[in-house]
Amino acid sequence: MIESVRVSYGSALELGLLKGMAGARSTTLYLFVSDAGCRGSCAFCPQSYGESSKISRIDWPRFRVEEVARALRGSGTLKRICVQCSDEPRIAYKAEEIVRRLASAGLPFSVSAPPLSVEEVGMLKSAGVEILTIPVDCADKKGYKSVKGRDLEETLGSLKEVVKVFGRGRTGTHIIVGLGESEREAAEMLDSVFRMGIVPSLFAFTPVKGTKLENAGRPTLGAYRRIQVARHLIVKAGMKASDFEYSQDGRITWFGCPDETLDEVLRRGEPFMVRGCPGCNRPYFNEKASGPFYNYPFRPDPKRLAEELWSN
Ligand code: SF4
Q: Own/partner pairs for 139-147, CB < 8 Å, 24+ apart?
C-alpha cells in the first residue's frame, strides 16, 4: 500500500496541510505519485535527475495518504483531484490505488501519466477516472527525442488508445511552449491533437536548477500570448493552424480572423488563463506570484493583453 504522496505547495495550503497564504488559491488538488523514482529523461524536469521535491518551479512536499484523505474530508473549495505520475513500472496501478482511496471525497479525477498500455488505460477508466492526460509536452518534432527521451509516435499512439477508451474531450495532453518549437509548430501540434479528440493544456517552459535546460530561456510573453490565442481559436472557434499566417521563422503574424473576433478573445480574458480539465487552475506553476504571468491566475486586462500579443 502506498504510504505517502507528494502534494503541490498550493494544494497543501488549500487543504491546511501547510500554513501560509496563497495569492491565487488552488481549485484542484494536485498530487504526484512516485515511488522508485522517475526513469524518464525529460530534459526540463527535475524528476528525471533523481529524487526531487520539485516539478517545474513548485515544491511538492510529501504527506501520508491518510493525512490527505482526512484534510480532503474537511475541505469544500476544491473542484477536482489531479493525480500526476512519474514514469515508473506499474505506476498506473499506484494512481488507481490513490483514486480508490480518495474517491469518497466525491470529486472528479484527472490522471496525467506517461504513455500507458491498453490494459492500464482500461483499468483507470474502470477505477472512475474522468480525464486521462498523456503529456506530449514538446511541439518540436525534430528535437522531440532529445527533449523527451522518447519518440513522439509512442506518445501519440498511447493518446489514440486513450481516446478510444475515455472518448473525445475526456482525453488530455500538455504542451510546453519554449522547448525549441516555432509558433507555427506549436499551432500545428495543438491543431493535430485537437483533431484527434484531445484537449490540449498549455504550460510555459520554466528553467529549473539542476536540469539540462537550467540556463535555457523562457518563451517570450508575445509568443506565449499568440499561442494562447491560437489554442483558443482552434479549440473554441473551429479554426485550423493553416488558417493563420506566419513569418519565415514561423512566428504567427495574423490569425486569419476579423479584428472583432480577436478583440472579443482579448476582452474575454480566459483564453489567457489556465485551460485544461475543468477546475484546473494550477496557480504560479510557471511564474512567480509577482508576475509576469504566462497563464493568468485571474481575468487579465484586455489593454495589457493587446500590448503583449504583438510584442516580441
Ligand atoms: S490539465 Fe490540469 S487537471 Fe488536467 S491533467 Fe493537466 S494539470 Fe492535471
A: 139/175, 139/177, 139/179, 139/181, 139/185, 139/186, 139/188, 139/189, 139/190, 140/179, 140/180, 140/181, 140/182, 140/185, 141/185, 143/179, 143/180, 143/181, 146/43, 147/42, 147/43, 147/44, 147/179, 147/180
